[in-house]
Specification:
By secondary structure, the chain is mostly helical. The protein is built from 23 helices and no strands. The protein has one domain. Helices cover 65% and strands 0% of the residues. The chain is globular, with a radius of gyration of 22 Å.
């Protein structure tokens, strides 16, 4: 039996007739030839031949399916929300208006569209879309208080991410993370995310004196999710939950109106980085880079567990013989780094990571990255120019249920699936414990060290590791991250080592 070359290995050109015979076009079959829709989608994943750094074209190398609209929709909603949260967190201490935040979000939607088409849709089809780094949001007020500059922050993230990508450090750290550590981390992120969205929905409902709306919307979402799981249509959870959440809330009297008019945001980077326009910060100084340096290190260090969680979820959801189309961690880091660098220079407020609100629904729908990436870009452009969809995307009954069913519940499921077999539960419990103490980056680095040393988890796995993999690399990561956290005051009960970060 012949072995198909891996997706990130150069393709052989010595036998073009063989390549033609194994091409996607020749192996593609109409959906009517399969007994079920799932069989057709799984066959599509198995026959794709993605090419790195070479054109991957629609209908020649992949097709668009109805299922691609689901992750594209979920990703767009998540993008509007996450970028809005980051922009607002930076803008509030600077005294900038909500209108400014909204314009920057629309600007970011147009910026990201270019890069996800270029990379994920065209030349790096196994690179997940470059999304938004959600775990950074709680840290941004500290950055702003210390005098941090968003451009300096973004450029350092891009530089460090690029170094990690070209050295393949991201995939190395992923290999050193056991199933128990990864599963526990995913469970923690899924649980914390679910709880936060439920609290946000109830806070919104209580603010309008209609707390019962939150209860009814969440109950309806639970019942819908159960029915979709029963009928094996879980990939429809995002659009149907958004529809039910919005309709139920509006029918019960929740206020809603469209306010964002169509238009084009300011596309001039000089405007955004002017001293009296845009961010009104001017260009960053050397001091600006020094201030944000520890946070940039921490941000890029958190990429590996974030990316690994998304890759693992994809592996769990996809059928066998689909390794070629699965997310490549190093390629994702490379595309995220390039996107971050250009986005920061242009004036956007986004700080990037792997796009979770896209990849999780895409994995559930059993769809590869490229087709949905192009549709996501189209949806982002429509939302950015049209304006009105943004109002609906950030409406709490729509937003909260979309994130719960599209991202956080699937993460819980994936994490529990990973910890079902083998000696994984102890490592999973410790990473949850350690993450609760500080944050997921601390929990991941500490537990990876303990697990690889063989103190917890599978002793046989530890014994088979090299000295570098067993303790040298994990210890270096833990020391670096803990030192950075101590410098900026993220260790509970311990004042920041640098006075500028004490608050």
């Amino acid at each position: 039996m012949s072995v198909t070359p891996k997706g990130n290995e150069p393709e052989k050109t010595s036998a073009p007739h063989v390549d033609d015979a194994n091409s996607y076009q020749n192996k593609h079959k109409a959906s009517s030839e399969f007994n079920t829709r799932d069989e057709y989608l799984e066959h599509e994943l198995q026959i794709m031949q993605p090419k790195r750094w070479r054109p991957n074209l629609p209908f020649r190398d992949y097709r668009f399916e109805f299922e691609d609209t689901i992750p594209a929709m979920a990703g767009t909603i998540g993008k509007v929300v996450m970028v809005g949260a980051i922009a607002a967190t930076f803008a509030a201490p600077l005294g900038l208006s909500d209108a400014f935040v909204l314009e920057n979000v629309r600007y970011e939607l147009l910026i990201v569209s270019i890069f996800i088409i270029l990379f994920s849709g065209f030349i790096l089809p196994t690179a997940n879309l470059a999304g938004t780094h959600g775990p950074l949001i709680p840290l941004i007020p500290i950055v702003v208080a210390a005098g941090g500059h968003p451009m300096a922050f973004g450029l350092l993230i891009g530089a460090f991410g690029f170094i990690l990508a070209i050295t393949k450090g991201g995939s190395l750290l992923a290999r050193l993370t056991s199933k128990g550590v990864c599963g526990g981390l995913i469970i923690y992120l899924g649980f914390i995310g679910t709880i936060s969205q439920v609290k946000k929905l109830f806070a919104w409902a209580e603010a309008i004196d209609m707390a019962h709306i939150a209860f009814i919307v969440i109950l309806a979402t639970i019942l819908l999710y159960a029915l979709l799981e029963h009928f094996k249509k879980r990939w429809l959870a995002v659009p149907l939950s958004c529809l039910i959440g919005g309709v139920v809330a509006f029918a019960l009297g929740a206020p809603f109106e469209f306010n964002t008019a169509p238009g084009l945001p300011n596309m001039n980077p000089a405007y955004w980085w002017g001293e009296n326009t845009g961010w009104m910060l001017g260009l960053p100084t050397l001091e600006s880079f020094v201030v944000v340096l520890p946070f940039a290190v921490l941000a890029v260090a958190m990429w590996s567990p974030d990316f690994l969680g998304h890759q693992v979820f994809q592996k769990i959801s996809y059928p066998q013989r689909t390794e070629k189309v699965q997310m490549n961690i190093d390629d994702t880091m490379l595309s995220a780094s390039v996107r971050q660098t250009f986005g920061s220079l242009a004036g956007g407020a986004n700080f990037t990571s792997s796009w979770g609100t896209y990849i999780v629904p895409a994995a559930i729908a059993k769809r590869p990255i490229p087709a949905g990436a192009i549709l996501t870009a189209v949806f982002c452009i429509i939302a950015g120019l049209w304006g009105y969809p943004m109002d609906l995307a950030i409406w709490q009954p729509v937003l909260c249920v979309a994130l719960i069913v599209g991202v956080f519940i699937p993460l819980l499921e994936a994490g529990m699936e990973m910890t079902r077999e083998g000696k994984t539960t102890q490592s999973a419990a410790i990473v949850v414990f350690a993450s609760s103490l500080v944050n997921p980056a601390f929990g991941w680095s500490l537990t990876m060290l303990l697990d690889n040393l063989g103190l917890i988890g599978c002793k046989e796995r530890s014994a088979n590791l090299t000295k570098m993999s067993r303790w040298v690399i994990p210890l270096i990561m833990f020391v670096i991250l803990t030192t950075v956290m101590a410098i900026v005051g993220m260790l509970p009960g311990i004042p920041a080592l640098m006075a500028d970060f004490r608050h």
